[in-house]
Amino acid sequence: MRVERKTSLYLASRKSDVTKLRKEYDTRKAFGFYVEYLEAKDIKSRASFTVPGAILSYGDAQVDPYRLMHQLLEAAKKRGLRVYDRSEVSKMELSADGVVLHLGSGSRINGQRVVFCDRLRIPAISQTECRRPHEHVRIN
């Protein structure tokens, strides 16, 4: 996978964002990241736009998220992960042995853990069904 080094600019869109941005800057600096905080006047002298503040970061990295996800999935599959793509889950049952997912097709998937990766929605799961919330994860 190709990783490209980049310089990035993290902007405060509004004055109300400056406090949080300053805290982010302080945290990055404390962890040894090479960053520079830019005040509005600094930005105005360097750019054709104005914002109340920004963090200039040197040495950031950029990857292709699609390729990264597929490489992570392939590595996880080699370690036993089972991937069910485009599978509509109609019901989830939790037990001491793990989890059973009932699919819209009538099939069932049994496992110890489940990770939902769906940008649209996950099945409606009531709190009573989620007795062990650490056993499944939702990723949007």
Structural overview:
This protein has 140 residues and is α+β, with helices and mostly antiparallel strands. The protein folds into two domains: 4-62, no CATH class; 85-139, no CATH class. It contains three helices and eight strands, in the order βαβαβαβββββ. The chain has helices at residues 18-30, 40-46, 65-78, and strands spanning 4-12, 35-39, 53-62, 89-95, 98-103, 108-111, 114-117, 136-139. The strands form three sheets. Strands 1-3-2 form a three-stranded antiparallel sheet. Strands 4-5-6 form a three-stranded antiparallel sheet, with no helix packed on it. β5 and β6 (108-111) form a beta hairpin. The longest helix has 14 residues, at 65-78. The chain starts with a strand and ends with a strand. The relative contact order is 0.13.
Topology (SSEs and partners):
Blueprint: E1 4-12, H1 18-30, E2 35-39, H2 40-46, E3 53-62, H3 65-78, E4 89-95, E5 98-103, E6 108-111, E7 114-117, E8 136-139
Parallel strand pairs: 7-8
Antiparallel strand pairs: 1-3, 2-3, 4-5, 5-6
